[in-house]
Every structure is written in C-alpha cells, then in structure tokens.
User: Which sequence fits this backbone?
DNA sequence: TGTTATTAGTCATCATACAACATGATTTGG
DNA sequence: CCAAATCATGTTGTATGATGACTAATAACA
C-alpha cells in the first residue's frame, strides 16, 4: 500500500494551495523574475482550470507571504525578497502527516551527514555530552516531540559535534516544527507494543553513538539513516492506520 | 497633491485588508484566545457588512500569516504563535572562506539527498527542465556565484524535482548566501587550467543528470557527493593558495 | 445496544455581474 | 496642428447566489 510516492499529497488540501505552490515554485525557480507581472486572473483561471475565487485566494496567500504585490487595475507583480532573506516553514503548512513527513525528509538529509561529520570530528568533550544525552534517552520514557525531550537533545548534540554551527542551527529550527498540535502524534502506534518499540529505538540510538565513538563515519551515516528511515515508516504506518482505522 | 492622504495615514487598501487588521488585533489583544473558533463566514459577513468574498480573502491572509487554521466543514481556529522562529545565517558571518565551506557542507548534506530523491520521483516534465538547465550550463561559460547562473539553476531544479518544496526553499535560501562580495571565487584556480576545469565540472553535472534520468538513486547521491566534494576541495586549495601566495 | 441514515452547520468552489481603477486610443475644442 | 476631454478596453475589487464537500450530532433502525 505504501507506494513510494511519499510526499505528493494525494489529496490536495485545497485548490488554492496547489496554485500557491505552483506559483511559488515558478517564482523561486526564476521562471518569474522580480518585477515581472504574473498572468492576469483570467489567464490563471484558464490555465489552471479553476474558478476566479480560487485564483484570488491563491494570490491572497502570495501577498501575505510577501512574494507578490497587487495593484488595482494593473496586475500583480513579483517583488524582491526584502533584505532579511531567511528560511522559514509556514506553520500553517504543518497540519497533516504528509507535512511532517516532508520535514522529516529534510532531517534525514541533514542528520545523516551530521552523523558522518560528527564521527570524523567529535572531540572527547562532545562525545561525553553525547554519552550523557544517550543515557538520559534510555532512562527517560518520555515520548518524542517535545523540544526538551532527551531524544531531541541527543540529535542536537550530534549536530553540535559536527563543529559546523549551521547544522545545529537548522536542526534546532526544524525541531520546533515537529511539535505540532494535531493528533499526528506517535501515541497511537506506541501503544500496541511499547516495550518492543522502545527497545528498538534505543538500539538504533546506541548504534549511532557507537559509530561516532569509534569514528566510523560511514557506519554513523548508515545508522542515522536507518534510524530516521524507521521513524518515517512508523509515521507512515500510523498515517494509513489512522486513515483506514478509526 | 497627496496632502489629504497625509492626514490619514491609514489608507484602506481594500476591504479585506481592513478585516485582516481588525481580526489580527482581536487575536493579539487576547479577545480571541489560542484554540478559539472565530465567527463563521456568515457571521463575519453580517458584523462587518461586507461580502463573503472579502471575508474569505481576509481569512486567507490570516492563514498565510500563520495566525489561524481552517478546517473544512468545522471552522477556523486561532493557533499559537510560533514566535516567528526561523533559520537564518547572518550575512556578516559569510566573509571568510571557512564560512563558505561551512555552508557548502550544508549544501552537500542537502543536495546529496535531494539528488537521490529526485532520481526516485522526478516527473518527465521536471526531467526536461533539468535537461534544459544542463544544456544552458554547458554552453554558458559564466562563472558560478550569480543567483541566476546556470549552475545555480541546475542545482535548484534538482531540489524542485524532489517534490518536497522544503528542499527547494532551503536551497534557494542557501543560494543567496554564496553570492556575497568576497573575491574568493573560483576565478583564481580556474585560470591555470580553465579548459580542464570546465570539462571536469561538466562531466560531473552530466553524471548527476544521467543518474537522475535513469532513476538510479544511489548513483545520483554518489555523483552529487563527488561533485560537491570536489567543489569543496577546489575552494580549499584556492584558500591556501591565497593565504600563502599574495 | 450498536449501527446506519439523516440532517444541519460550515467551509470550498463555481459562475456571473457590476464597480473601481489604469491606460491608451479616439474624439473634440481651440 | 495641438491639447484636453472622452471613450474603450483590460484588470483588479466586491457582491450575490448556487452547489458541492466535509463534519458532527441526532434520529431511525435492527
């Protein structure tokens, strides 16, 4: 059932959202340059095959996002990303399991490399920090998700051990994204076999630590990829279970 | 004469904007607490004396601003402010070669995975975009660094082909970081053997494209890692050369 | 009791119409 | 001929009515 078309929202949230993503991409990809006038509402209606309501809502989103500016009677124009460019994931885009999965993919990308670099570069002090975080992780039964959870701390320590502050910076930002309030939590799946689940996760963490400890970069990458890949599969299963089940 | 506009700095751009301001105030002032359900569209139509169109556009703005979230068939709810957290690399921290190297490591992390995912998921249309970017890359002799450069476009297209918008978002952000004013560009090293250099880089890009074209995920990852790893080495060599030399 | 149908409330989308604004072409007055 | 007023056209802003889709709660039924 879990076809590998992992991210593509098979059920679009709403039409306007699709338009927003499409046009955002066309802006970021350079198809629409700064100052360009994007197609008129009528044209967008024609090309996307939706009503003007949807087009206007999409443009409304783009306006609020600061991507475009509309002038009455003339058109809407792409405006330059004002000075403080930054990377930001809109909180409103974190409501579904699919959204969490998309961010998790980013984490996989980041943390596999971070684990590899940490294995090469970790100092003894950083290794000690990691060891402490791992111990807290094994003792504490608290579920992941909390920003202060031992799980998060462990992963953050790995990012710190790379010596590249950007890894830790991005990690700590992504950490705030995984919290969301919806019922997406891992609570459901952990119920059926909590002990087995915890034992397995702990083992995965231990593998990562061991690889970093013995400075085995490739093994660290592999262990981290396995760990987060499993997390992704658990989320997916919880997703389909929630959709099919209750 | 715009003096009459000067009297009232609050010029109503459009009705929706007025609604946005009104409701934003009511949210921030605490009149509407987190989790509260704000009035239905019909009620807002009645209280503000505008049409549903305007109400919906206002709500659309609030959604994009991350203030509220709408659930189909239920209502729209106020959600907690995520404190405007974002990931940002200070431009002032991008002056030395080491800083560029640190960002490049992040790119390696990102793009390696992006190449792998793109190989799995790329559509035919995305492949065509990639092919075009590659062609422009080979023809054009312009040096990298510019945000509109073929090199950047090629890499961005790969990020887009993952289907995960966050990859493209982060990529385009990191792209702005590599621009800055430092003369650390690859110009120096390219001088000694420019032809050989270009031939090699083109070959690396071609390898990446080929792997994505035949949906070979592992090969795509490897090719991208090789490519960016080589870029890193070139940068390092340019660094030590610059330090020792002039 | 438990399950299914129905219903009401709400948001999502569509279609149409008209008003407000901007711009360039056309007409008109000198 | 020139310049100003007017008109024509295109675009965004707003209004209105209708229909579809989703959710939760209630009613009907076995």
Assistant:
């Amino acid at each position: 059932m879990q076809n590998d078309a992992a991210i593509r929202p098979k059920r679009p949230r709403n039409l306007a959202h699709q338009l927003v993503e499409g046009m955002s991409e066309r802006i970021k990809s350079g198809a629409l340059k700064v100052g360009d006038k994007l197609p008129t509402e009528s044209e967008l209606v024609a090309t996307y095959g939706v009503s003007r309501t949807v087009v206007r809502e999409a443009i409304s989103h783009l306006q609020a996002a600061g991507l475009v500016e509309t002038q009455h009677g003339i058109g809407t124009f792409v405006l330059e990303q004002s000075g403080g460019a930054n990377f930001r994931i809109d909180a409103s885009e974190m409501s579904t399991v699919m959204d969490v999965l998309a961010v998790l993919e980013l984490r996989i990308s980041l943390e596999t490399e971070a684990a590899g670099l940490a294995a090469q570069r970790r100092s003894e002090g950083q290794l000690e920090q990691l060891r402490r975080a791992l111990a807290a992780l094994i003792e504490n039964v608290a579920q992941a998700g909390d920003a202060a959870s031992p799980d998060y701390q462990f992963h953050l320590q790995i990012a710190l051990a790379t010596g590249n502050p950007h890894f830790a910076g991005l990690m700590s930002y992504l950490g705030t994204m995984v919290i969301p309030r919806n019922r997406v939590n891992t609570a459901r799946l952990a119920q059926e076999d909590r002990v087995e689940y915890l034992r397995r996760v702990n083992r995965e963490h231990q593998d990562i630590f061991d690889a970093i400890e013995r400075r085995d970069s490739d093994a660290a990458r592999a262990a981290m990829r396995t760990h987060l890949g499993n997390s992704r599969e658990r989320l997916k299963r919880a997703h389909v279970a929630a959709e099919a089940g209750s």
